[in-house]
Amino acid sequence: MTAGSGSLRTPLCDRLGCDYPVILAGMGGVARAELAAAVANAGGFPTLGMVREAPSLIRSEIEAYRRLSDRPFAVNLIPAATDPGLLHRQIETCLSMEVAIFSFFWDVLPEAIARVKAAGALVLHQVGTLPAAREAEAAGADVLIAQGQNAGGHVHGRSPTFDLLRSVLDATALPVVASGGIGSGKALARALTLGAQGVQCGTAFLATEESFAHDYHKQRIVTARGADTVLTDGFVLNWPMGSAVRVLRNSVTEAFGPTLMGHDPERIAREVIAYDGPTPRLRQSTDSPLRTTSGALEQMPLYCGTGADDIDAIVPAAQRLNTLCAEARAQLVSDRHSPPAGRS
């Protein structure tokens, strides 16, 4: 892409097989086949969020996706937060189904990257720090996703999105994708102008018709602003201690008071507050409310990034993608015609 040209196509689009440099984040539980296919068919790049899911569900979601779209897709796994035995079966399932692109996150596990690359797969690795970016590149990642602290859901670093983007771009020749707080075409245009080859969006696609999130979660995002989010490690049950998430404020975060960080999973009571079918969900677990969830939804982690400022309705995913891209094109054209700084 030539900054200011109004064109959104980047070399990453050719590599991933999409029309627009917008990636659906691999949101666990939320980014399932229906949402992934809607994004893919509209020209974006889809990721199925299969974090710690059973191989049977991974298989059924891939099959469902392929019934809805024939476009390329990625499967998101989080090796460092998954039991090694389960991770082995997840990767085995994906490879047996000829998954050609993987998206990894959290700590870099070189052996996981090496395994899928040996099978000929492309690896996108999301990182939250410059050292992690260097580790992922050294381990063989093909694309780096620089996730800033503005992101909703699990957040690995503490740098603002565009600050991290600049530092990663300066340190690598790999394609870099910006992620975190990107809910508008203006943010997409800024990322491309800085040198990113694309962006990854979570919150913007969570609040869509096809998302598997519960309507309560979607509506809370629509009425929220970025300032209504907090970063806390209080929703940590079933993840490693210290794993921070960005969520909307609720009664649980308010009860934390100023102590948003430093929660020890071993000291948290296992209190059932909701169910997904027969599966219990615990207070302060990382499980967000899905279409299938019933119970105390308000007390569950309502993942949301600072890009909520730009989300004011629940719309089809294709509409959200088209709006983002149209706004970005307009911004790039406007930037091209704007006078240089210091001139009227």
Record keyword descriptors for this entry.
3-stranded antiparallel beta sheet; single chain; 17% strand; 8-stranded parallel beta sheet; 12 helices; alpha/beta
Mean pLDDT across residues? 95
Rg calculated over all Cα atoms: 19 Å
Q: How large is the share of residues in beta strands?
A: 15-25%
Can you give the helix content as a percent range? 25-40%
Helix-and-strand structural type:
alpha/beta
Major sheet characteristics: 8 strands, parallel
Helices and strands, in N-to-C order?
Answer: HEHEHEHEHEHEEHEHEHHEEHEEEH
**End-to-end Cα distance:** 27 Å
Written description of the protein model:
- It is built from twelve helices and 14 strands.
- With 344 residues, the protein is an alpha/beta fold.
- The longest helix is centred in the last third of the chain and has 21 residues, at 317-337.
- The protein is globular.
